[in-house]
Amino acid sequence: xxxxxxxxxxxxxxxxxxxxxxxxxxxxxxxxxxxxxxxxxxxxxxxxxxxxxxxxxxxxxxxxxxxxxxxxxxxxxxxxxxxxxxxxxxxxxxxxxxxxxxxxxxxxxxxxxxxxxxxxxxxxxxxxxxxxxxxxxxxxxxxxxxxxxxxxxxxxxxxxxxxxxxxxxxxxxxxxxxxxxxxxxxxxxxxxxxxxxxxxxxxxxxxxxxxxxxxxxxxxxxxxxxxxxxxxxxxxxxxxxxxxxxxxx
Length: 249
Fold this sequence. Notes:
The protein starts with a helix and ends in a 17-residue tail after the last strand. The strands form four sheets. It has a seven-stranded antiparallel β-sheet. Strands 9-8-7-13 form a four-stranded antiparallel β-sheet, with no helix packed on it. Strand 5 and strand 6 form a beta hairpin. By secondary structure, the protein is α+β, with helices and mostly antiparallel strands. The chain folds into two domains: 60 residues; 174 residues, Umud Fragment, subunit A (Ribbon). The protein is built from three helices and 16 strands.
């Protein structure tokens, strides 16, 4: 059973705010009686202390940035297991916490964006992948090569000169991918992206559960755009200081 942190945070903020309002307009009791706090006054004091903090965290997490930990190697070499990243929540619209209803439209994903989204068949789980196909696109995936709307996506040896690592160019967005088995036909097919949906792939093409297997991602399932790495810790190993602050392209 997974915890809905947004729901818990929203409820705590709402409850503490209601307590402060009720205390101001109805209870109107002195804060201290004989130097001691009553049970109700204790509740008010806790609410007075925690409400500003809870409200600040709720606003930042819901509308600005949310931390996210990379749980697997499906986005290697761009993102490594153990990376902690910031997700820009306002990149694709401002949404109400918990309800996820869009109230302000601020833009849509572009080809090549790395996005966090809620899994269509289990919205309590977040995934992170790269946007390859936009609404209405026809995407051919064949032996690790992409053909989008009839145009072959350039794929070259990476400047890092590492085996299995290649450089892919999506429009003007260049990024590295991993191809572990050059002869694999895993996920080879033709995909037509429905309106209001996106076709996403992991950069680790032979080790990723993406739109080849979990279908297209509805626009309303988007959480935000991955923008920066703020920490890397994997297990008991020392943090990778060289990754801190890296931009996610």
